[in-house]
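> example.struct
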């Protein structure tokens, strides 16, 4: 007989609604780098936020606009093996690539 799966355990949560560091307006995409840092595409704040593996706020970058490093509704996010962060900048119809520090 197969072993039953282990129970799912809640690990952590962070954030609340708003525009301050560590707050979100419709977080939409998430990625994790090789150190376990978590990147979140914060859609309606038009930015990316970076958190430690335990959820401590580390950094943010971006603002509303069409220039390099600016976003209009970032919906998705991925991190590659070299810790580059790719952000789907939906309303600007592009993908932007960043270093781990933004």
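> example.seq
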């Amino acid at each position: 007989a197969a072993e039953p799966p282990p129970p799912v355990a809640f690990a952590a949560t962070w954030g609340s609604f708003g525009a301050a560091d560590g707050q979100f307006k419709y977080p939409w995409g998430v990625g994790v780098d090789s150190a376990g840092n978590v990147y979140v595409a914060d859609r309606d704040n038009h930015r990316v936020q970076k958190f430690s593996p335990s959820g401590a706020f580390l950094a943010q970058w971006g603002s509303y606009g069409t220039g390099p490093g600016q976003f209009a509704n970032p919906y998705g996010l991925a991190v590659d093996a070299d810790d580059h962060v790719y952000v789907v900048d939906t309303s600007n119809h592009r993908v932007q690539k960043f270093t781990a520090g933004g």
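> remarks
The longest strand covers residues 27-32.
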